[in-house]
Design brief:
two-stranded antiparallel sheet, 4 strands
């Protein structure tokens, strides 16, 4: 393919606005990218926990710095994600909750901290987005 007599380079994946899109429409590279980035941010939680930061503040920091990475553009990729990639994302949240409340199991920590699994959150975000699309809310917000 050419644009203005310039041959376009053929690539297997490309990052666009933080979303890694592969030519085979799989999400392996994107999930690997966000898991790597989110894993690095877990160190921040460890340091703050050792520093005596309150659990509620740690939850807010987790939500802002880590969960936001794990959920970014999930309405695009969540329902096409292969079953073997979902645990990779959930593993990051499990680790973050273990840093915040080390004595609790993952399911106990979810209940005590009033946090849902990433799968549940992504499903909810997809439903909300589809509802907005069906009502025309998204399109009216874009045009304003």
């Amino acid at each position: 393919m050419k644009i203005d007599d310039q041959q376009l380079e053929l690539v297997t994946s490309h990052k666009v606005l933080g979303l890694v899109i592969q030519n085979n429409l799989e999400w392996n590279n994107h999930i690997e990218s966000i898991v790597t980035k989110a894993s690095k941010h877990l160190h921040i939680l460890r340091v703050l926990r050792r520093g005596g930061i309150e659990i509620n503040d740690l939850i807010n920091i987790y939500t802002a710095l880590i969960r936001s990475l794990l959920e970014y553009c999930c309405v695009v990729w969540h329902h096409t994600l292969p079953s073997y990639l979902s645990p990779e994302l959930e593993r990051i949240q499990k680790h973050a909750l273990k840093i915040r409340v080390p004595a609790l199991s993952y399911s106990e920590a979810l209940q005590v901290l009033n946090v849902r699994t990433l799968d549940e959150r992504c499903n909810e975000l997809c439903v909300k987005t589809l509802g907005k699309i069906s009502r025309g809310d998204l399109l009216s917000n874009i045009s304003q």
